[in-house]
Structures are given as structure tokens and as C-alpha cells.
């Protein structure tokens, strides 16, 4: 318990104004400061972040303050001590507790993680080389639909559609393109539909993220190409 401040006593007992003063909240604030210091110290050598450790501290702070209030308002305690509220300490403990509750809400919603990842967002790039074989004898027209900018090139003696180039994007980590395809084709009669689609990656709400492409679409020379 906290160290009390003596205001006066006699040999017959402590009563009236001679009771020692107990400032409610000082003990709880001291434990809160110790807990905050331990949380930040532990985060330096543990994988757990200080924010997650502070979430564990919040209920302990309320429990300690509640126990202190129950003890100091007992009849036996009131005979020995005169109570005073340390409003700065009470406000501090309440502020820490309310802040921890808000922090828990942000963690559960994912907003805090988004903010943390925003500081690690940087421009990245991925090299693209994809091929699709086609049946030239049955194709009269190629219809291209793309969500990314590209440049069209025609080549003689080419029996396939080739997509080459580089994609630029902003993200906190690199994307593995082994399971994603940008180039897809589908033949309907004598029409060949070519689709160039974007890649899936995690975008951040608090940082500028976009997808830009410097792509070249290579098609056979003799076919008609329509871009939509």
C-alpha cells in the first residue's frame, strides 16, 4: 500500500483530525507507471508490441484502483486514515484505462495495423513475361481489354500472344506472382479475346497505393486488333 503522510497522533490512539492522510489514486498511478515502463521495456526484446502489452495492463489498472477504493472505505481503515482524492492520479489512471479501451477497439477493427503498415509502404516492381499460344489459321481479329496501360507491337512469324514488361505498385511487402496471371485469352469463333488484368495485393487506407504498368503486348502481324 502507499506510504501515508502523518499529520499528528497521540498515545491514546488516532482519531479526528489527528488521523493520517491517505491520498486515493497515488498507489494506483504508481503501479500504472511501473506497468507502462515494463511494457515498453519488454517490447524491446520480445516480438509482442508495446500496444498489445498495454492492453493487458488496462484491466489490471482498474482492478488495482477498485481494490484500493474498497480497502480505504472500510470502517477499520477510516478509523486510522483521513481520505483525500489525488485527482491528478485518478484522472491519469482513468485516461490510461480509456486509452487502452480505444486501443483495443482500433486493434480489433484493423485500423491500427493499417496505420502501422502505412509507414512501411514503398514503391515495388515486378517483371512480367507471359505467353499464350493461338491458332492463327482460325483467327481474324484480336479484341484487347486491359485495366493497365500497355503498348501494342506487331510481329511477323509470331504464333502466340506475348505480354512483357514491368508492373509498379506501392505496398509494404513484395507480391508473389506465381499464382497470379495477368494475360488471359479466350477464342470465340474467329475472334480472340485478350484480357490484361491487374494483380491482387493488399492496399493501405492511409498511404497512397496504386498500380502502374509499362507493358508491351506482342501479337501476330496479320491479324486485326481492336482495343476496347
Automatic annotation (TrEMBL):
Record's keyword terms, sorted: Membrane, Transmembrane, Transmembrane helix
Spans through the membrane: 24-45, 51-73, 85-107
- In terms of superkingdom, the source organism counts as Bacteria
Q: Does the keyword Transmembrane apply?
A: yes
Instruction: State the protein's name.
Output: Uncharacterized protein
Per the UniProt record, the lineage of the source organism begins with: Bacteria, Bacillati, Bacillota, Bacilli, Bacillales
Amino acid at each position: 500500500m502507499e506510504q501515508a503522510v502523518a499529520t499528528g497522533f497521540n498515545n491514546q490512539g488516532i482519531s479526528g483530525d489527528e488521523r493520517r492522510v491517505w491520498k486515493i489514486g497515488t498507489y494506483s498511478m504508481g503501479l500504472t507507471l511501473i506497468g507502462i515502463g515494463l511494457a515498453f521495456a519488454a517490447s524491446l526484446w520480445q516480438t509482442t508490441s508495446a500496444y498489445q502489452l498495454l492492453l493487458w495492463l488496462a484491466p489490471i489498472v482498474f482492478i488495482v484502483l477498485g481494490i484500493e477504493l474498497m480497502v480505504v472505505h472500510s470502517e477499520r481503515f477510516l478509523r486510522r486514515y483521513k481520505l483525500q482524492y489525488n485527482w491528478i492520479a485518478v484522472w491519469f489512471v482513468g485516461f490510461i484505462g480509456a486509452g487502452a479501451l480505444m486501443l483495443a477497439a482500433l486493434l480489433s477493427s484493423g485500423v491500427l495495423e493499417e496505420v502501422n503498415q502505412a509507414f512501411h509502404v514503398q514503391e515495388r516492381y515486378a517483371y512480367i513475361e507471359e505467353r499464350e499460344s493461338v491458332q492463327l489459321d482460325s483467327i481474324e481479329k484480336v479484341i484487347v481489354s486491359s485495366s493497365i496501360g500497355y503498348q501494342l507491337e506487331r510481329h511477323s512469324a509470331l504464333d502466340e500472344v506475348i505480354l512483357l514488361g514491368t508492373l509498379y505498385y506501392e505496398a509494404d511487402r513484395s507480391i508473389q506472382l506465381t499464382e497470379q496471371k495477368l494475360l488471359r485469352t479466350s477464342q470465340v469463333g474467329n475472334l480472340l479475346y485478350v484480357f490484361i488484368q491487374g494483380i491482387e495485393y493488399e492496399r493501405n487506407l492511409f498511404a497512397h497505393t496504386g498500380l502502374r504498368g509499362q507493358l508491351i503486348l506482342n501479337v501476330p502481324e496479320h491479324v486485326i486488333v481492336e482495343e476496347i
